[in-house]
């Protein structure tokens, strides 16, 4: 990391934008005009355009005390393209606006954009627009991600049907435990700055928190395998909450099985250390950015050779509600906070 | 205005989004899927898609002490579609994200969205996406405006050519004087809350500040009259600054004439009261949201019957630089702050 500090004011707003965007090279033919005019121009040539936006506020969505700006830039792009993948679409462009107080130097902004560009390269998206402005306090990010999809091939949350299999990619709960860990270490550090953070063996959960990846590979696998999910959503608020959304919007119910929930060994160990239930972390932790989706039972064979997808349950009638069957065989109603969040769980 | 106060927490995040977006009716066939999924979907059916985003921060871009939330919602949409018009495109959709502290009630957010929806109706755009989140301090708005344009018919800032006429819509400088007035009244009020604001006769300049309109009519006029500007930009940072951008990006120079600058009578009177030069306000005031554009001389006849367009100068070689000729016949180099901002001007 450079020790230099260049004041933003020395470049001016337009100089800063030029500085931050001078190395952009478009990866998509659909990116016709980028940063530098009143607006950007794209052409998806007969495909449909998918758009999502997000507002990320320092102190609410991230803590710069333990979030390197490079990771924050990367994560900003990753979590937004995750929403594009959740539509079964391919991300192609992003627009990023940042507001920052004068505690941020040009070098700090460069680090943020290094992360942005690294994620752009990873996901094949072009930065085509930006806004830089000052804030009274802290760092504020707005991100609009844009993608394309063949006409009417996008997947909503509302298409799940009775009998469909409920599937999730990757594993769950790690980012939440990463957050607990970083908050604990922050507290220790604030009480005694001499003590160095103890992150030994916690690389996985910290990585899941600070540098999540969007599931580009899963959407590409769908295309190759000829799968079109009936419904899909990315897991940002916690599995329970997303299952409930999907059920509500599809007008269905669901049963999931505790023993089918994909949980990484490091997550289980961290949950044990934090005196938490790994299952509860998986259900209500959030920030996993995995894909939760439903497929017809007939497509079960097609996902057989993708070992990073778990079938965690199935879709029922709306009247049956949304439940989880515990390892002990008990059935509990799902709530947005996991299940029975105020009374512990039964197993 | 309602005196009720409903806490945002009583609705929850998803309840709030549902509440704020429940009356949306799409005006555009291109709006396929709106609020409520991971992302929105549009299809511009063979046209190109134009996108711009903006981040507006309380205390930096607006002061809620004299900005009604309804006006702020309207202005958010107006200033963003203004960027779409500045590309010679038609706005079709917007995405709006807001972050707010707990001092804002549901009723306050309703007022903001009333303004948003009023502007959406005025400009024919559909709200298709949103994000609502909390902030540590103040009200923060991110807006992404989307528009469409026939293939390759968008107008950049870079197409002005020597001999082109330099034109501007409407009149300039009023919003800046509106800002001076509101800041003065705020100061008086803070010193003595008994004193009521004195806005007598200042309706025009205050309106230009608090409820600017984007120049939909001008872009529609271009289409009817068969005009395609060679370059265009909207006047958000002040005429001087925009002329300099246009010259830089087009690789040209410009001459403008002080006596051709369109300035409203109320603006002149307000400038006099504030002991300011109306010309300086027009050149460097900003927030006018008028369109500055260039057309070939051959198109002069075509704008003849549009009395809300002023020809204020012409385009020269880059070597000649950018100048203004004063009423007294003196020639001054334009600067981003107007001209000779630190030394007064010559006439």
In short, what is this structure?
The structure is a homodimer of 347-residue chains. With 347 residues, chain A is α+β, with helices and mostly antiparallel strands. The first copy, chain A, is built from ten helices and 13 strands.
Describe it for me?
Two copies of one chain form a homodimer. In chain A, 33% of the residues lie in helices and 24% in strands. The first copy, chain A, is of the alpha+beta class. The first copy, chain A, has a seven-stranded mixed β-sheet with strand order 8-10-7-11-9-12-13, with helices on both faces. A four-stranded mixed β-sheet of chain A has the order 3-6-4-5. Chain A is globular, with a radius of gyration of 21 Å. At the A-B interface, strand 2, strand 3, strand 4, strand 5 and strand 6 of A face strand 2, strand 3, strand 4, strand 5 and strand 6 of B. Chains A, B: Mg(2+) 2 binds at residues 54, 83. Chains A, B: This is Thiamine-monophosphate kinase. Chains A, B: Catalyzes the ATP-dependent phosphorylation of thiamine-monophosphate (TMP) to form thiamine-pyrophosphate (TPP), the active form of vitamin B1.
* Chain pair forming the biggest interface: A-B, 63 and 63 residues
The CA-CA distance between the termini of chain A, in Å, is: 49 Å
CATH 4th-level superfamily of the largest domain in chain A: PurM-like C-terminal domain
Helix content of chain A: 25-40%
Q: How can the largest sheet of chain A be summarized?
A: 7 strands, mixed
The count of domains of chain A is: 2
Low-confidence stretches of chain A: 340-347
Task: Please indicate the percent range of residues of chain A in DSSP E strands (runs of 2 or more).
Answer: 15-25%
Indicate the CATH topology of the largest domain in chain A: Phosphoribosyl-aminoimidazole Synthetase, Chain A, domain 2
CATH class of the largest domain in chain A: Alpha Beta
Strand order of the largest sheet of chain A: 8-10-7-11-9-12-13
Architecture (CATH level 2) name of the largest domain in chain A = Alpha-Beta Complex
Outline of chain A, from the CA principal axes?
globular
Query: Would you report the number of β strands of chain A?
Result: 13
